[in-house]
Amino acid sequence: xxxxxxxxxxxxxxxxxxxxxxxxxxxxxxxxxxxxxxxxxxxxxxxxxxxxxxxxxxxxxxxxxxxxxxxxxxxxxxxxxxxxxxxxxxxxxxxxxxxxxxxxxxxxxxxxxxxxxxxxxxxxxxxxxxxxxxxxxxxxxxxxxxxxxxxxxxxxxxxxxxxxxxxxxxxxxxxxxxxxxxxxxxxxxxxxxxxxxxxxxxxxxxxxxxxxxxxxxxxxxxxxxxxxxxxxxxxxxxxxxxxxxxxxxxxxxxxxxxxxxxxxxxxxxxxxxxxxxxxxxxxxxxxxxxxxxxxxxxxxxxxxxxxxxxxxxxxxxxxxxxxxxxxxxxxxxxxxxxxxxxxxxxxxxxxxxxxxxxxxxxxxxxxxxxxxxxxxxxxxxxxxxxxxxxxxxxxxxxxxxxxxxxxxxxxxxxxxxxxxxxxxxxxxxxxxxxxxxxxxxxxxxxxxxxxxxxxxxxxxxxxxxxxxxxxxxxxxxxxxxxxxxxxxxxxxxxxxxxxxxxxxxxxxxxxxxxxxxxxxxxxxxxxxxxxxxxxxxxxxxxxxxxxxx
Length: 549
Fold this sequence. Notes:
Layout: H1 3-22, E1 34-38, H2 46-54, E2 58-62, H3 65-74, E3 79-83, H4 91-101, E4 107-111, H5 116-124, E5 129-132, H6 137-173, H7 179-195, H8 202-232, H9 242-256, E6 263-268, H10 273-279, E7 287-296, H11 303-312, H12 316-322, H13 340-350, E8 357-362, H14 365-373, E9 383-388, H15 390-400, H16 402-407, H17 411-423, H18 426-436, E10 440-444, E11 450-451, E12 454-457, E13 470-473, E14 484-486, E15 502-505, E16 510-513, H19 518-525, E17 529-530, H20 536-539, E18 540-548
Parallel strand pairs: 1-2, 1-3, 3-4, 4-5, 6-9, 6-10, 8-9, 12-16
Antiparallel strand pairs: 7-18, 10-18, 11-17, 13-15, 14-15
Helix pairs in contact: 1-6, 3-4, 6-8, 7-8, 9-11, 10-17, 11-13, 14-18
């Protein structure tokens, strides 16, 4: 083992020790949970109260719903036990008034009655548990732990599991990895990001963030080293790239579609793996996932290049050469993706598809609603491609709109906003209709996005493009150590606008800023979501195949 490997192993062990030290429970810091127990026979429950106090709980007992509400208004409790059949204000009435003040407080209903109507009414009032008298102490303790300790216990188990996973991933990062290994590592890191999201322990999240950054740093080196060879021609270790995706993966799906069931290719622009994980549960009542895969976006990881390449089945340089009328260069006016339909139809012809196909692009809410209204017209198609631009618009809007910045001020909120949009979107309605038609559905994207934080200074001519993650032009000025530079664009399948044009790409969470008003723009764009460069989040993106349940 060389000295670098030994040093990395020491770092892994040190981080493991840090994890263990961070997450040893500090018993002195735990506050005694406070329980309010309302029952007109509270004196007869004294043995239960003493039992709970011996287990470390502080229990306040009262004889009526009125007394319970008086205390509830002046003191803070972590959980409430309510007897359903108290005289005067009964348990259900007391419950309703408590929920008006603290809707998320755990309330456990205790009753002698086993009437189904009372149970349904209590459950409808959002009780946390329902116990039938007589109750024994262990039954009560289990209910308390389930409601008060479940989150803590889940968090502690997640911490233990991640500590083991941290070591495994760190050791794996020390080895020689191929594209499939990187896709697996990214899947695991995203899993833990979502798993630990509800944890209140910021130390644990910091450790994961540190590991994510380390992985991104090493992935950029790997990607830069291997990418030119991938573009030159695929081999056994090459990942599927944007321009090879549909010619490789669409024919097997279309072959199955000869049974008469329609196929829908849904491309949600700018959809990251973690965002897919957020919206996936909303589809599982009607669909099952039959293929959960990924592919690698080409460079730049931007719509003009990646999505044109996806639909054309060709690299950007090949599109510019074979279909010059369909390629819109960086310096030209207008939409850079306005010829996707023509490129898609030409690609289908090349792979021998002879069925009926269609293409639709949704760029705003009105267009989405209009397509929902006329969706029945697509039923006769063998293959329909739907491009949905919402996530891309959300990413750009977050940079421009202060209100949206507040709504999605971090990655968790950004994911949540995506979930909320999808749940109430026209796209969700369309997917529901596809399920009614027993359609086969593919969900994918053209590239991901990354939250940037580190400004890197570059210089360029007035005609240089405005993207913050890559630049193309003549006479670019930059520190070669800060970027991935490509002086011969044709070698990575990119068109050369001018004889002296070159490309540069930012890595990890860097973004490119011009010297003029550098500090202003560095601050303005910091902590925004951008795409076009090299990171796990931008490059490794989902390919999902769905079948109806």
